[in-house]
Amino acid sequence: MAAREGTMAQIPRESVEQVLQATDIVDLVGSYIQLKRAGSTFKANCPFHTEKTPSFTVNPGMQRYHCFGCGAGGDAISFVREYENLPFTEAVRKLAGRAGIVLKEEADDPFAEEKRKRRGRLLDLHREAAKYFHEKLMRDPAAAHAREYLKSRGYGAEMAKRWLVGWMPANEREFLEWVRSKKFTGRELCASGMAKMNDERNPRAGLWAGLFRDRLMFPVCNELGDVIAFSGRQLKEDKRSGKYVNSPETPVFKKSQVLFGLDRAKKPMLKEKAAVLCEGQLDAIACHEAGVEHAVGVQGTAFTREQARKLRRYTEQVLICFDGDRAGLEKAESAFKELAAEGLTVRVVELPAGDDPDVFLKRDGVEAFRELLDKAKDFFDFKLARARLLGAFDTAAGKAGLLTDCAETLSLISDGSAQEVQINVVATYLQTSSTVLRDEIRKLKANPRRRVREEKVEERGPVVAPTSVHRIVRYLCHLALRSSAAQGFLGEQSETLHEAAPWIEGVQLLEGVLGAAPDPGSPAAVNAYLAGVPEGDRKALTEGIDELSDTVDGLREAEEALEILSGVALQRRDAAIKAEMGQPGLSRERMVELLEQAKEVTRLLRGMDKRFVFNDEIAPSTYKAKEPEWKKKWREKNG
Ligand code: ZN
């Protein structure tokens, strides 16, 4: 077998198989996105590209998914990898954890093992700490003022329980003792960002855990609900530090990727067909507590492209619900740019000046709030109506400034028809023609400085090309992976395959499949095998595998396809011999050799069933004519 290129470096195939065995892909995918039954498969709007009609299919029989729109496809592990942007091993661990399986890991990469352990410990520490803080808030007499504060915001114990709100003691010693009693080390505590060394050069100088001292603690979760950070609300006014402080970035917390409340909001977003984007976590909590459960919070930091991408997986429409002040407007504008660039429709909820969602909900109630959501304005309507009110339309200079400003924002809308609509909206407001705006946009697009910025956002890892493989070989691979009879038969044909290998691309892939011989009756075994081969091989092997009919007669097809394979190999060999004989300056010995070979090939070709002797380039009709309908489809897909 070819080198495994790290994809399975630490997890043996048996474990991967065990994890896949314990995971039902319909359950798994269904826990992320809404699936609809369609015959023997399930359908959904693809979470990996924007679409209006579902082309994403989950096949429970094969335990695989496939998108006919963007070509995404794979098994449960690939889904988690793609969806959560995790490396292979992390995705397997996540699924193992979900299924309650303890992974036997090969310790051949102590470094990766160490990293994984550290990450696991960090999540444990966050989870335990959240519980500890919560207990403190609920029971500690010293936390009376924290409970009082919550009450003043209109919340009781129920809300605190639901969101696991907590309190960090004013005396940090208390917290540090708890950490010690739970057997977490100082190093782990520092890695979590909840403490720092008093003196980097002197470990004996002890730890400082004052970052969250005497603060109300809001656990921040990732999409799956693991606590990965905290946000602390000041309880006693202290000008030296902020009203809110957040955990610093850690191996488990990347600020730019997290949206507060997304773990709870993702399902409601599907139902409501929109997301409500708030500024802070208290606003998001206020929405949820009032029953507006498709709300998430940005948490003070600037809204990022990664966050826009996360939202796009669940919805096509975002209702920005920021504070009704100038700063809120600016933040809405920058959020719009990221959202529109990801193809999302953006509307802006107009809160009365000075309000935030929390204040508004408490005062006017959820009915009035829902009405505001319904009346949310298209972004440019909102922006330009606001600008007119502020007098920007009164001077020529003001209008010219607005035109450039709008052109820049318009240029970021990735959906062409949406852009066209918005161009007309803006042109009407500015009483100019849409041509003027389009020219302006074109000028901006030509500006190389901007292009660089756009490209940077698109940065991704290197794309591995699929290994080159002849379609007959691919077909044989699919048969070997789907039919026990085919696999058994092909397993005995190593000589034929060996002879064909120098002439046909990808035979070594088939040999790999036959060597590993994953049980075709077990989707988990097949998927575990596929997960273990290098990425290029995997791409080549899985392309079109979903197209193969379940009712195929594996043995007969394999016999036939192997004949074709031999035929193609012979013809290519024949062509190579003739080409060499045509070369000038051949030695007599070589010429004799070639003539011998040519005779041999001719004899072999004559011995073959005429149906199978064909040349791709010259006579593909031989093959096509006797093709059943499904195979023709399969071949077209696999061209
Ligand atoms: Zn897709």
Gist of the model:
With 639 residues, the chain is α+β, with helices and mostly antiparallel strands. It is built from 29 helices and 16 strands. Strand 9 and strand 10 form a beta hairpin.
Describe this structure in words.
- This protein is α+β, with helices and mostly antiparallel strands and 639 residues long.
- It has a five-stranded antiparallel sheet. Strands 13-12-14-15-16 form a five-stranded mixed sheet, with helices on both faces. A four-stranded antiparallel sheet has the order 6-9-10-11, with helices on one face.
- Helix 20 (471-482) runs parallel beside helix 23.
- The two termini are 26 Å apart.
- The structure holds zinc ion.
- Zinc ion is lined by residues 46, 48-49, 56, 67, 69-70, 72.
Blueprint of the fold:
Layout: H1 13-22, H2 25-30, E1 36-38, E2 41-44, E3 56-59, E4 64-67, E5 73-74, H3 76-84, H4 88-99, H5 110-139, H6 144-152, H7 157-163, E6 166-167, H8 172-181, H9 186-191, E7 196-197, E8 207-208, E9 215-221, E10 227-234, E11 244-246, H10 262-272, E12 275-278, H11 281-289, E13 295-297, H12 305-312, E14 317-321, H13 326-341, E15 345-348, H14 357-374, E16 377-378, H15 379-389, H16 396-411, H17 416-430, H18 434-446, H19 448-457, H20 471-482, H21 484-491, H22 494-500, H23 507-516, H24 523-532, H25 535-542, H26 554-581, H27 588-607, H28 621-625, H29 629-638
Parallel strand pairs: 12-13, 12-14, 14-15
Antiparallel strand pairs: 1-2, 2-3, 3-4, 4-5, 6-9, 7-8, 9-10, 10-11, 15-16
The structure holds zinc ion.
